[in-house]
What we know:
This protein is of the alpha+beta class and 261 residues long. It has helices spanning 87-113, 118-133, 136-143, 157-169, 190-202, 228-248, and strands at 14-23, 26-31, 38-42, 63-72, 77-81, 175-184, 208-215, 218-225, 252-256.
Amino acid sequence: MMEALPEYPEEGDLVVGTVKNVRNFGAFIELEEYPGKEGFIHVAEIATGWVKRMSDYVREGQRVVCKVLNVDRSKGHVDLSLKKVNAHQKREKIQDWKNEQKAQKLVEILAERCKMSPEDFMNKHGAAIIEEYGSLYNAFEEAARPDIGLDEKFTGEWVQKFCKVAEENVAAPTASVDGYLEITCPCADGVEKIKEALKAAEKVGNGSVEVQYLGAPKYRIIATKEEYKGAEELIRKAAEAAIASIEDCGGTGRFDREGAK
């Protein structure tokens, strides 16, 4: 493995595993993030309530997310629970695991461009990158954003190559916020004025603003930008632009950020 990992998970960790063997009393799990290590889910930790058939819950070859209950390093035992992981935790953990798998592939591409092996690249730069960003994939996500990159934190020819690989292979992270806009216009051509006001909202700022019709006089505004704070600022400016436009022709407007929740 290119990225240095602890030999065993810690109690309370969520781990990704593949079901290797299913018995009436439990299931043996190969731990994907800990090469050569295996865990065990006792039947009592498979599901809440009585488990009549193990095959109703787990099957060989299935990928699962488990919570670590206990680790006995002297015996090499890792006790796991399937029932203590909810659907949201499972989705997040699987996505994080997939992201790190992708990051490992990107390091291989990067190392080739740097004319070194992936292991050498990680030995030289990996620890500092992970310490700064928390994970390899987080670093690639940041590097994929042309307004940020890694230049402020790292130096060397490899940095530009890192950013280039990120831009080619990783979608920069975004944040979206929404709110309700209510606008009315008493003019004879009020419908056209409202359309102009909504277009004014969509044209605001550096980012993406979308307006959805909910039923007159209510509209939903969705603002998307690289960071949550930026998205909040963008939606505020979009709402202000729409309200200013409609008020210029004698109409009224009101924005409710909380009402979208």
